[in-house]
Amino acid sequence: GPWTVFAPSNAAIAALPSQATNELRDDPSLFGHAPFLRRLVAYHIVPRLVLGSDFRSGEHLPTLQHGYPLMLTQYESESTNSTWLASGSIIETTDLLGNNGVVHVLSRLMYAPYGSVAATITLSPLLSAFVALVEEDTEVLAIINGPNPTSVFAPSNEALMNVTIPIDGNQRQGNVEINGSRMSYPDI
To answer: How many independent structural domains does the chain possess?
Structure first.
């Protein structure tokens, strides 16, 4: 230490897809062995003391996920006091002091960028069904592996399991079956 921890609030953790929290609860060893989760936690820890009064907008703070600093940003508006963000997550509370550092509470988890968009989505076990769909479409795969900036709004496994599909103007509800890496809609 000293350490600075940017910790997601209880509400941020509760907002995670149920599959993520169920996997952690049911298999505590997953945390120690899953590279994605280790990187996720490491990205929330800065190996020095950074108090709220030390925040500088645009500053990049090194994290325990080496090579992936988090970025502090300050937004000001007429209707509210300034709002601080850490890599896009609102800092709800600052300066919870401990004997070996400080904790700042976040509105949601932060995710460090990791390689291409395709590489990033394959790291999350919550997106395995989406990854299986993407791997079936070489055109989409080429786009998200390509050199151009790309944004992907990926549905979680849970969302894909409860998808409603519009067909000929009718809405059909059906669970998505995953057969190996291929997904099909059984009632279509």
So the answer is: 2
Please tell me whether the overall predicted TM-score, pTM, comes out greater than 0.70 for this model: no
Render each residue's pLDDT in the chain as its tens digit; 188 residues. 899 999 999 998 888 767 666 666 666 555 555 666 777 889 999 999 999 999 999 999 999 998 889 999 998 877 667 899 998 889 999 999 999 999 999 998 888 776 777 877 776 667 888 888 888 888 888 888 888 888 888 888 878 877 766 555 555 444 444 434 334 444 33
Residues 123 and 162 in one domain: yes
Rounded distance between C-alpha atoms, residue 120 and residue 71, angstroms: 19
Range of the domain at 130: 117-184
The verdict on 100 and 14 lying in the same domain is yes
Residue 78 placed within a domain:
yes
Domain assignment present for residue 20? The answer is yes
Around Cβ 43, how many Cβ atoms within 10 Å?
Answer: 23
Domain end (from 106, 140, 158): 106
DSSP 168-184: TTEEEE-PPEEETTEEE
